[in-house]
Specification:
Layout (H helix, E strand, L loop, with lengths): L5 E4 L7 H42 L11 H18 L9 H25 L8 H29 L4 E6 L3 H12 L5 E7 L14 E3 L4 H8 L3 E4 L6 H11 L5 E4 L12 E5 L4 E5 L7 H21 L1 H14 L5 E7 L5 E7 L6 H11 L3 H8 L11 H8 L7 H7 L3 E3 L9 H4 L3 H4 L5 E3 L12 H13 L3 H17 L5
Parallel strand pairs: 2-3, 2-5, 3-4, 5-6, 11-12
Antiparallel strand pairs: 1-6, 7-8, 9-10
Length: 495
Amino acid sequence: MEFYVNKVKASAPYITLEDVVSGVKQYVSMALLILGDYFMVVAALLTAEYIRAHLSGGYIHSDHVFRVSKFMIFGMVPAFYLAFLAFSGMYIKRLPFVKSLEHIFSISLYVALLCIFLTYFAGMATSTSRLFVAISWILSFVYLAGFRYLTKRMLVKMGLWEKPVIIIGAGKTAELLANRFANEPGLGYVIKGLVEDNPSQRNITKQYPVIGSFAQVERAVLDSHVKDVIIAVPGLKREALTDLVCRVQPLVKNIAIIPDLFGVPLSNMEVETLVNEKIVMLKVQNNLSKLGNRIVKRIFDIVVGSALVVMLALVLAGLMVLVKLDSKGPAIYTGKRMGKKGRPFSCYKFRTMYENADAVLEEHFLQYPEARDDWEKFAKLKGHDPRVTKVGNWLRKYSLDELPQLINVLFGEMSLVGPRPYLPEEKKRMNGKASTILETVPGITGLWQVSGRNEIEFGGRLELDTWYVRNWSLWYDIIILVKTVGVVLRKEGAY
């Protein structure tokens, strides 16, 4: 869950000892991160130089020993990284780890492209190793990501990266915030107290102290000496919210307001202000409706999909033999699914059921009527499914039955990541969400796959697929693919 946060800055009424200590901690943390980033980039370049030189000596024919100028390793390239990191706010912003990875990945790519451009402009393109550039790009990303993950955790334990906050409100939104802060210790947010009118009715108040009510908010904030406040009451009326902000703003440095935007696409949201009219405009984009994004997604599918087909060719052949030996029928099952714009296509899977599966299912419903409820909720049978073969059961546990869909990906009928491939007869149950979900092709895996798989009810899958289409980014696809590997190996929600 992500939140759009509107920050309102205010000057503290006077400088206190806490302000000085907080400022020192911030600058020490920033200095440590800058120094660490510098050494990580240098280490990545030296490692890439060593690997490239070793390869040139044993595996790549070369008439000279590979070397990179010291100025590039210790000066130019690290300076580029530090500049991009600073410009992206990576020394100030408190981003979730996944979002931080996205920024580091983009920065590493930008620096690699910039170095290629500069060497070409300087007439050094022929003497520059493309392998060195590629290795240094990958290693810089890995080293920086690993360093920042570990360092921020260390800084939090040392008390240097902590940011005390007070949350106004103690409802579901506040609970979501508290859970995120607990699951993302690298953010550094520490909840020092809650402001709530009905604390006895809230679960979160068992974890954090209630330091006042809405009527006592000024005294609660002043007594806490906390300079950052989050207003997590999205249902509050405009007049009450405005009054709350005006009362708290002079007492703190920053106020974060969580508006009632749940379900609205958040990725690439832009904020514009019309000062004279006192209006804030939030520009929301439907990412997969853009031609450029669809082209990028298709190129990614072709490149990665082709590589996977080549790498898994022997595995695919072996699984086909196992399916054939286990039971009668073809190794590949072809089922009709809805593709982009609802157009039907043939979806390939390894056959995991007996040939008379429909008859077996009806007989199962007669013997176990309660099983029909699972079928209606999940479009799957939980527990024992008499239609599934022995090999099919094993294939399903590890989602190996879906590997033939790589062919659908290469044909452009599916994507590596996307919404669930829905059956044509399920369109009626999709209600108004069908138009959004069917804007793009379905995926072999998706947000539903890494969020619970078959444990999620049909309506929950629709919500996840709708969110994915509206908030798509290439980075989300990469993260979902990586998470899918872990989910499959742990067999989470598989049956």
